[in-house]
Amino acid sequence: MKPVVVLLALLVGFLLVCGCTLNFDTVSTPETPQPTVQQPTAVSQPSSVNAPKYRAGDIIDDAPTDDGPCWLVLAYDPEIDMYETAVIFMHEDGSWGYLLDEDTDWDEREFIDTEYPTYIAYVELSDVRIGSSA
Length: 134
Prior knowledge:
The chain has helices at about 1-20, 110-115, and strands spanning about 60, 70-75, 80-90, 95-100, 105-110, 120, 130. By secondary structure, it is an alpha+beta fold. Strands 1, 2, 3, 4, 5, 6 and 7 form a seven-stranded mixed beta sheet that branches.
């Protein structure tokens, strides 16, 4: 049994010695350093295809007539790609500027841009009143 143990010990020792040696003459390194290519950092900005069509204060509708209530864009949120809108009415003098109440809707940008393709007018949101036209 001793010759088997000695033979196994020699075999393990031989394998350990062979695995730990490295011939440094065969390692080659390039003479000139290779340039590193830096990848651009992705920035979360809407592309021109996905850019919002409207801004806060735009009055929009599904047709180019402004004879009735239209939609007022209150805000656009690029994080969720949605517009906040409300129905806006004309004053008796024909100017835009009042909402019946504080109800607003959030709709996807693509839906609003497609279903309400007509820009009617622009109003300053600070000039828009809630309640009657008076």
